[in-house]
Amino acid sequence: MSVDHAIASELSVELIHLVKKIEARRLHAKRQADVEASSYPVLFDLHRGPARVSALAEHVHSDVSTVSRQVTSLVTQGLVAKVSDPDDGRAQRVALTSDGDALIARLQDLRVAWIQGLLSDWTNDEAITFANQLHRLSTALGGELDRSRGQSVDLDYPTAPTTRKDAS
After folding, report:
1. What is the model's pTM?
2. Do you know which CDD domains this protein is assigned to (predicted)?
């Protein structure tokens, strides 16, 4: 059974507000090192281990040219290095350097402290429930992205909530 229209409508509006607030927060956040915030997903993905640029692009849902540019910048900054691919000596993978690992650790600590501050009046059970539901939504969205790869998707985003008086 699917969620009814009114609830889906309110959720879509709340998600838009959430994304906009996260973007605004990111714009005002103190930069760590001299790294573009748009490169953080690449760094965090490399925390799992070395990868080819094409695999990174797929993992972070970006195009190869963008990720390649980000990798070049990160190499210049000494946060990642290109290493030989053990499966194909002609190819290269990208791996975090010790400076990259240190930056990821610092970013993770800052993000954890930020989330703890945001959820200071939540119980652990509430946070776990939210995390599980957020993971479920993220997994569904990831599946949709995989199915629609290379296709245009037409979304009509509502601009105001339909069931709440205060949408701030």
Report:
1. 0.76
2. HTH_ARSR
